[in-house]
Amino acid sequence: MQATLIHGRRSALDIASLRNQSGRLRAVVLWLVFLIIVVGSRVGAGSAQAALPQPSDDVSSWFEAFKSDATDEELYRFLYAMPKGGDLHNHLSGSILSEWFYELALAQSKRGYRYYTRVTINNCRPYGGNAFVENPYLMLFVNVQESNYEKLSTCEKEEYLPLDELNPQEKEAWLDSLRLDKAHEGRDEFFQTHWQRMGDLYLNPYLAADALVLNMQAFGAEGLMYMESMIGVLGFIGAQGQSIPPDVVAQIYRERLQDADALATGVEVRLQVAILRFLPGANEHLRYLYDFVSRHNDLFVAVNMVGREDNDKGYPLRFLDTLRDLRRTYNNVRLSIHAGEVDEPNDHVRDTLLLGADRIGHGINLITDPDTMRLMRNGAYLVEINLVSNLLLQYVSDYSQHPFPEYLRTDIPVALSTDDRGMWDSNLTDEFFVAVKEFNLSWDEILLLSRNSIEHGFLPKTTKTQLLVRYTTRIEDFARQIAARPSAALSSTAQSYGFICDRYQLCEW
């Protein structure tokens, strides 16, 4: 009995102790659950709330605090959501993501087009052929449409497959062939293989028009308001191989831009045409395209000059007499010309301004020309800055070498642009992310870049004023979001691409 009582007493004490411990344990569990819910909600919001400073009406100060504490993902989501001005320097043919190109090519079957690509080389041609032509033989994934495929020899036809019959490995290699995605691929790969591989794909004006709208949609999603795209009008062919005149090509573009999906983007669009500066007939091309732009000035606003500047046959002053002659007749054509996209110092930027250019594409080596830099300070001439392009094409080996911050902070007008975003696998947010991350941009500098990209656009004065008002309204609304609830200023739909994944490890969305 005693033993039983003692045992019973011990049991009661043990039970009381266990109850006390259980109560403490329950409190700990509830606290952990609370932490999991709070932290999980913050992580689910893109880790946004964890680093955001308190709301503030002073956006400039808020942004400085945000930069210092934000993760790369938070900064990227903020910049993606931020309203932007324009992209003044993009080549449409180089701005088509590989996946878009593939889907667009297959979709053209509705218009009778079918495309083939070279997946093997059977040495069908004799020794001693010219390997330096526009479409070299010894190159995989060169694309031809069916009308040109049928002209090939039986041996060469066996080297090709229809795009819609590629196996998964072949398709992935085809997609990779149209972008710079490997360490050994740089300037030579870009200039000497990418455009050649593209082949007939870009000679379809309907595909080009659809690609233009895809870019409008993607740019619109990241807050862009204006896009000025370099686009082709010469050399286009129909499904049966027939030539399509440039005036017809212009009408195809014009009509596509009036479709509901294009208008829904809210992105204002104007187009440029470009000449390949080092070709023997470049001056004749310039004359033709100058007249073309003048006649289609509702949509086409400028002539550009493209191509490697280290090919001295395209030196700027080659075109001076022709342009002076054209200006005697035409009063509505603008010039935005690639210049200074070269390694060595030279006078290309200065000479390009003499040609009458209002904007300079790239302008990397302007930094070596102090007299022209002084001329451009607080002036009317803008430099179109392409940070991703300049790194991937090895005009700078590291962003510490890039002259962009020197131009910006010595009051040379600059704006950020994407160049050939499809081949870089990037977007305009990437350009802003690099600029903020590498050069510590202030909020006022970000606003200046966007305003510059509208103010220096080749637009009618009324349209430009309307865009500036729209931009001011949108950026003020964005600032009010920051003042009220900063987490709302981080996009939940931001999309990262290959460049930002490879260089900054932002890969999961």
Automatic annotation (TrEMBL):
For the keyword Metal-binding, the answer is yes
Required cofactor names: Zn(2+)
Which part of the chain is the Adenosine deaminase domain?
243-468
Highest taxon of the lineage: Bacteria
Q: What are the record keywords, sorted?
A: Hydrolase, Metal-binding
InterPro entries cross-referenced by the UniProt entry: A_deaminase_dom (IPR001365), Ado/ade_deaminase (IPR006330), Metal_Hydrolase (IPR032466)
Please state what the protein is called: Adenosine deaminase
